[in-house]
């Protein structure tokens, strides 16, 4: 935005006025991306990839997290870390969020028709938690696709859970009343107090991958993860570690009593068909070796 502003000043007032409205939304690249994003749903460029969650000691698949992907015709796959915040600022997250809810429920129904009951988690952002029709949308999608609400989990980040406490608490209670499970994502990166955590009707807590990453190197990370697992268990929460990439991280997490694991060590986010084969056969046929970067990861 700053660069665009400087350009605008150089070009004089007239041109500045023309771009003014768009400039409020960010840089020129953002403006272009946003223009494309507005059409992404109707152009069928959005997709949900599914990353498995693995039982820490049993090794079987316990469910999958739906992660949004945007296949941009020119830029390739754009990360949700880029376009979700953009969509939030532009007021588009509602539309994207509804698409995710609908698509996840449709997929669960399709899997069930193939004889596979797969638990699915979707991510909800702080902005979505302020939308008055969120819970109604979720309830309607579940009914439309005849999905048991208990099969669906909504992940909200610890910081989203903290913000605007009154409204958020009311909405998450409504969600849970609808039979959906609640998960606290990216735990450890926000500032949730213990007393607040107790008031959240969650059934799962996900340890942020920054702690998992430091497990082997830093003994304090190990102490933190140990404490978080004990805390979560004392509140009857299931603990999932995200971003597990190495065998030694897996071993440490198992020793500390973590319930479920998720990360490239087991599987990257994958298209539904591949996930289904993966979950059914227990092992991925020709599963690629875990690598640090992937355009899908
Ligand atoms: P998140 O919910 O914490 O998802 C975990 C992220 O870590 C995903 O990135 C996943 O691909 C990545 N990941 C999983 N295992 C590993 C690993 O072993 N190593 C590393 N380095 N990364 C791993 P992704 O898919 O790019 O999503 C980023 C964030 O975007 C998500 O973080 C979530 O906050 C948000 N997001 C994704 N899909 C949606 C959606 O449908 N709606 C909303 N509101 N947000 C979404
Ligand atoms: Mg998540
Ligand atoms: Mg997470
Ligand atoms: Mg995370």
Automatic annotation (TrEMBL):
EAL domain: residues covered: 30-283
Regions annotated as coiled coil: none
Polar residues bias (residue ranges): 291-297
Chain residue ranges for the region called Disordered: 282-297
Source taxon at top rank: Bacteria
Protein name: EAL domain-containing protein
Organism, as annotated: Aquincola agrisoli
Residues of the whole record sequence present: 400 to 696 of 700
